Amino acid sequence: MNQVILQCPICGHATEGEILKHYSTFPESFFLRTLQESLANCKNCDLICLYPQPTEEILNQFYDEKYLEEQKLHRRAIYSYTMNLFISLVRHLRRKDALGKFAVWSIAKLLSLLLCIPLIKKDRQGIPKALDVGCSTGDAMRLLHETGWEVYGFDINKTAVMEAKSLFPNNVFLGQIDNMHWSDEEFDLVRMAHVLEHLRDPIKTLTEIRRVLKVGGYLIVSVPNAVSLEKLMFQNTWHAWDFPHLWHFNRQTISKIFIASGFSPSSIRIYTPSTGFGVAFHQATKNFDGFYKSCLQITTKIYDTSLMRCFLFPLEQLISTIGFGNTIVATACKSREN
After folding, report:
1. Residue 120 DSSP one-character state
2. What is the full DSSP assignment across 161-193?
3. Which of 213, 229, 236, 305 is the most interior residue, by most CB within 10 Å?
4. In angstroms, rounded to a whole number, what is the distance separating the alpha carbons of residues 18 and 1?
5. Which DSSP letter does residue 26 get?
6. Long-range contact list for 168-171, CB < 8 A, 24+ apart?
7. Cβ partners under 8 Å of residue 118, min gap 6
8. Higher pLDDT, 47 or 293
């Protein structure tokens, strides 16, 4: 029986769905294989989701110290070089005598897309405030701070929050957004990098984000692209199918969930980091044990090879331009009319 009834967050009510894949057909390395979960899509809006949805207890068991350590290695492998380069470029842009300013600005804009960190407009008054939802160990908060933002963040992982507090003792909190008690219209920017797909109730979270965001402020969300070339190539071994991703988005469904939460979608862009295919290939062909260590080795080799950098950049842009990059970066604005 492939027909099921789903509680779709976009549609806001029970809708008909269809089972797409059973986790029992997935590799042994996928955590949910033993839970006999499935992937289903809503026939009304085409959102792909985990079915049935796991309980809060199961989710809490997954976000342990091992998960945190894997995420830290992943970020260091992919973002460390890029983050430092971005900070250097932004500082260079502040110099009045900057040479080649347009070229520097262009590269900085590209990196800002990859990192989900916007460049601050020159006409903005005062120091803008940013909130990092799911801030983990505070790496992105540090980047925002270095580029001119007053930063705040929260996470559900106690160990991650303790590490982030070493950077920002008074600005990092443990828990969910609905028990943070921020004032209305407090932030100029809210950033959610690979968080939305983990949330049991994404509409509830987005609605609360809209409340704390200033009119004219922006929400920047990044999620895996469910119609990426990686997904088409690797099928059941695509790494983004793995638990605890509860929802899988494309351009249309990310736009619909913004609208359902009261936001006005501003832009939906797609990109592929240089390491994307190397990581995807490795994860598709080997078990998860030792994956992130290998990811680090692959990333380092790619970054250290100038020829590979030159080859991958135009390929990334082509894949992203036609909509098959591995990451969606969506921006939404809070307007008065919403």
Report:
1. P
2. HHHHHTT-TTTEEES-GGGS-PPTT-EEEEEEE
3. 213
4. 9
5. S
6. 168/138, 168/141, 171/141
7. 112, 189, 218, 220
8. 47
pLDDT in tens, 236-286: 778 788 778 899 999 999 999 999 999 999 999 888 765 555 555 555 544
The residues, any chain, with a CB within 8 Å of residue 321's CB and separated by 6 or more, are: none
Confidence of residue 299 (pLDDT cuts 50, 70, 90): low
Sign, CA dihedral 103-104-107-108, equals negative
Radius of gyration of the chain (CA): 20
Rounded to whole angstroms, the Cα distance separating 245 from 200 reads 10
- pLDDT score, position 252: 96
Residue 18 bridge partners (DSSP) = 3, 41
Provide the pLDDT for residue 288.
Answer: 45
- Which tokens in the block code for residue 109? 């804009």
Are the C-beta atoms of 280 and 239 separated by less than 8 Å? Answer: yes
Kindly list the domain boundaries of the chain, sorted by start residue.
Answer: 64-225+256-333
Q: Within 13 Å of residue 294, how many CA atoms lie on the same side as its CB? A: 14
Task: Tell me which DSSP letter residue 138 carries.
Answer: S
pTM for this entry: 0.80
Number of H helices, E strands in the chain: 11, 12
Q: Over range 309-315, report the average pLDDT.
A: 67
Higher-confidence residue: 177 or 81? 177
Q: Which CATH class is domain 64-225+256-333?
A: alpha beta
